[in-house]
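User: Assemble these into one structure.

Assistant: Restating your components, then the assembled model:
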Amino acid sequence: MIELLPLTMLGAMLGLDVVSFPQAMISRPIVSATLAGALVGAPGRGVIAGAVLELFALETLPFGASRYPEWGSAGVVGGAVFALYPEGTTGALAVAVLAALLTAMVSGWSMIQHRRAIGRWAAGMRDAIADGAPGAVATLQLRGMTADLLRGGAVTFVALALWVPLSRILLSVWSLAPAPSRAVVVALAGATALGAVWKIVHATTGARWYLLGGFLVGLSLMGLT
Amino acid sequence: MTAPHKLPVGVQLATLLRLLAVQGAWNYETLMGNGIAFAMEPGLRLLPGGRTGAPFRAAMARHAGYFNAHPYLAGLAVGALVRAELDGEDATRIERFRTACCGPLGSVGDRLVWAGWLPGCSLVALGVFSEGASPLAVVLSFVVLYNIGHLGLRVWGLHAGYRDGLNVANALGNSLFRQGPAAVARVAALTAGVVWPLAVRGVVGPARSWLVFVLAAAAAGAFVVTRLQGRLEGWRVAIAGLAGLILYSVVR
């Protein structure tokens, strides 16, 4: 049984980083999943899960009021679940990535609820804020950040409590061969990443040629190594 | 009243620290307005009467209202608004400035950071990963590189905003903002092209013999995702795909 408390605390801190504080992007999955893997004792497994999730996360542009998946808590869940199993465990990456994607979706929804709650608290403090009362602004700010910390921790805890036992059950009856099990996950991640990059750069003059040129260089490097 | 030429170092540091939390009370009514007032508070204490004076209360009330900007460029507005308040600018002029700078500070920051610097740094970290670097090196390559840009933008914004006050629009005319997003997008495109096949190979593991098929399938999938732009998100499709894969594997 993994220790849920350190992972929950990590998920809380990284969930906070997504929007509230300090937005240093330590919540990106390539960081969060690796840190979770390290907490479980397998950073090398964590970084593999992190790289796959980072390919998915390239699609997420966290524009202000838009709705998007929350990768901080999700990366912790994906990294921890994958790191639980030794190298060569067939299907572990597929299960870990699904756990992370579903956590990202639920956590993104929880961010919206959190923002609505802050709106309600702000409405309740409207008179004090409109009067410029010393402390009113700071109180709302700290309440919002504390709630976000708790939100990230709660999502991480519940997701891990669900996915750690569920992953054991699923992997105990896994029947697909290693190659197709991994190939499907990587193809989905690769498709999402390439589509995301295209969406970002296609409107920039000449960027498609840079992408194509880089792709040829990448394929050449792949042939060399 | 005339604002000091430079904010005291303690006030600058307190403001910068609070700017890191500028979205801590983000909500759908005032967006980051509360965070702007929160970040300005150390500077506004320099107003006559300090924290209990009428000018302080009036300024806090003014700035806790609706405001939106890219969080990393919010410092530009915060610096400019603190300067304007300490200079005793007319409240109407300050309000006009607040309204006028929301759009540019949002769109420029979104293009430069969210659509440029962030994916660019992600791709660099994926490149480091695909070359077989240690987990620590992968994490540090992303965190250090990304935050050089992140923190640099925040520090520059506060400094330039306070220096220029309500004339800070000139700072947005900086070539970094006019040509930066396109330049960053080109570099990100080049990096993406190089890194994408290497990253796919780096995570393909036991499916190495399937690499060509995986790359082809991913490219075809990317084509579909881009054709259905706005109606389809890759990560949502992946949830369905992985759920199907797992179901197939456990029930067959």
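Chain A has a mean pLDDT of 95.
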